[in-house]
Amino acid sequence: MAVPVSYNVRNLIVRKTTTIMTALGIALTVAVLLSVMGLVNGLDSALASTGDPLNIMVLRRGSTAELTSVVSRQQYQDIRALPGIARDATGEPLVSLEMVTVIQLASVDAPDGINVNIRGLTQTGIDLRHGLTIQSGGRWFQQGRNEVVVGASIAKRFPAAKLGNTLRFGRSNWKVVGVMDAGQSATNSEIFGDLNLVSADYNRLDFPSSALVRATDAVSAAALVNAIKTDQRLNLDAISERAYYDKQSVSAAPIKFLGGFVAIIMAVGSSFAAMNTMFAAVSRRSKEIGTLRVLGFSRSSILLSFFIESVLLAAFGGLIGCLLVLPLNGLTTGIGNFVTFSETSFALRISPLIMLAGLGFAMLLGALGGFFPARNAATKQILVALREV
Amino acid sequence: MSETKLSESSEVVIRTNKLTKEFIRDEFHVIALKDVNIEIHRGEFVALMGPSGSGKSTLLHLIAAMDKSTGGEIEVLGENLNRLSDTQIAHWRNVHVGFVFQQFNLIPVLTALENVELPLKLTNLKKAERLEHATTALKLVGLGDRLGHFPRQLSGGQEQRVAIARAIVTDPQLILADEPTGNLDAQSADDVLTMLSRLNKEYSKTVVMVTHDPHAAKFATRVRHLEKGELLPEGVTTTA
């Protein structure tokens, strides 16, 4: 049987200063890692919840983003005639021609301006996006009027885009008549206006950017994607809306890399700190180790005991790390989207799974840092251990 | 009483044959124990005496299998210790040997009861049974009212009594004590020695005690002297 864990816990409590200092080092490492994971998770969630599996994004062949795509009104008409497209109550095919471009808005964090997506669309485009609601006090823009509706994140982060304000972009002034709430979706980072007015303002009345198509079912969606891609006459590309937004998660790659890199560097440091603490503990408790051996505890029991102590110490640090990042949960931030060349706002998500991963990471640090001191304790000769002061 | 007569009348618990312990320290070849032949029988209370460096503690450590001999044979409770693995020795020690240190060596973060319970963790006893045994052992050494006390809350004499309780809690046949009174005042030392003597007489424990103190040795039933690593003949005392 192993040395009782209470022995390890009480030793950690007795040397509380070194325990807390080491745990704090591990806590900071875990906090950095969890912050990065929370950022990535938040962005992934925003992008993942944006697309609808039945919606198909149609772009110019070769384009990877709406911003660099052109879909003419003629192509739009051709798409509408394809089979497998869902229809609205009036029997009209659910195809939304859309114009996407970027404008610069000054934000709280960047007074010089940040790129923000402006999307010109019709009522069909709004209908194709589930869960869109207008916050109280506002309304949807009206066709034929220079009005826009801004996403909730835009309204929050850009003072100029508050309800009732007027924005200047293209060749016109645009009144903000509503703030739309799209849950965690990336739509929260966009501004919606009338398709004809927005595209006319940018001299692209006949050549907007993309088309969003709703398929009747999953089988039709796959068939539609295939039909559009293989139709030489159309010369267009098609991709499921969800896959389109999933691809944008590459924007988080630099954060993942940098955060991962910093976390690894810190992890090495924390691991050495844990190792140092445990070596000191082994050295200070040498006589106890000798005594335990004399009482009949085997080398493996001693190894396990000190190993557990190190893991417990690190788990304590991991727990503090989780508590440190918990206030960041739900915090809204933005990231430059490499695909849309605009900012995508999202909320940090420190989920229970992420915290569990952080705790696991901390325990791994403890295990790495604790193994050699534990081995050192286990391999001590009894008499040598008893004689050490 | 000669060893031959004893071996005829009672069971030999410890038997050594030309037991030797040598080591190298700072390039010097040191002979800590040389060709020691001794037999200790069940129920004996043997005191090992001698000046510092005489090899008495080395002999005790070899009997407890805390160290390995470099020559000769040692058989304790029928086991040839040189042939046991590390794990077997650990188990053997837990079952058969109770060890009392000069500096008590209690675990400071554990209470008296937990310290005494510790060796029982290696047995198959349930928690309640372990606590019952540990409490009984502490009551036996007169510390029934100190169960929840930490070592720092006890006097030296009380600490050593806890150590004795820890040594006897597994009901070992052999109790080994290394200068058990070395850190105690006269009264506490007498209490501890009386206790060891009682364990020997009333509970038939075989006790081997290393001591400098002639007064402590008087509690033993037999005294053997060592000098410069050699065991002196029965009845011969050291010159120091």
Structure keywords:
heterodimer, A: alpha+beta, 2 domains, two-stranded antiparallel sheet, 19% strand, B: 240 residues, alpha/beta, Rossmann fold, four-stranded antiparallel β-sheet, 8 helices, globular, disordered N terminus
Summarize the structure in words:
The complex is a heterodimer of chains A (389) and B (240). Helix content of chain A is 49%, strand content 19%. By secondary structure, chain A is α+β, with helices and mostly antiparallel strands. Chain A folds into 2 domains: 5-47 and 251-387, no CATH class; 62-234, no CATH class. In chain A, strands 1, 2, 3, 4, 5, 6, 7, 8, 9 and 10 form a 10-stranded mixed beta sheet that branches. In chain A, strands 11-12 form a two-stranded antiparallel ribbon. Chain B has 240 residues and is of the alpha/beta class. Chain B has one domain (3-231): Rossmann fold (3-Layer(aba) Sandwich). In chain B, 33% of the residues lie in helices and 27% in strands. A 6-stranded mixed beta sheet of chain B has the order 6-7-8-3-9-10, with helices on both faces. Chain B has a 4-stranded antiparallel beta sheet with strand order 2-1-4-5, sandwiched between helices. In chain B, a hairpin with a 2-residue loop joins strand 1 and strand 2. In chain B, helix 5 crosses helix 6 (156-168). In chain B, 50% of the residues are buried. Classes of the chains: A alpha+beta (389), B alpha/beta (240).
CATH class division of chain B = Alpha Beta
Instruction: Give the class of chain A from helix and strand content and strand pairing.
Output: alpha+beta
CATH architecture assignment of chain B: 3-Layer(aba) Sandwich
Write down how many β-strands of chain B occur, each being a DSSP E stretch of 2 or more residues. 10
CATH topology of chain B: Rossmann fold
What Rg of chain A do the Cα atoms give?
A: 29 Å
Shape of chain A: elongated
Largest interface: A-B, 27 and 25 residues
Multimerization status: heterodimer
Radius of gyration of chain B: 18 Å
Largest beta-sheet details of chain B:
6 strands, mixed
Strand content of chain B: 25-35%
Q: What is the typical, i.e. mean, pLDDT of chain B?
A: 90
* Helix-strand string of chain A: HHEHEEHEEHEEEHEHEHHHHEEHH
Helix share of residues of chain B?
Answer: 25-40%
Alpha-carbon distance between the termini of chain A? Answer: 27 Å
Share of residues in strands of chain A: 15-25%
Helix content range of chain A: 40-55%
Secondary-structure element order of chain B, N to C: HEEEHEEHEHHHEHEHEE
Strand adjacency order, main sheet of chain B: 6-7-8-3-9-10
Total count of domains of chain B: 1
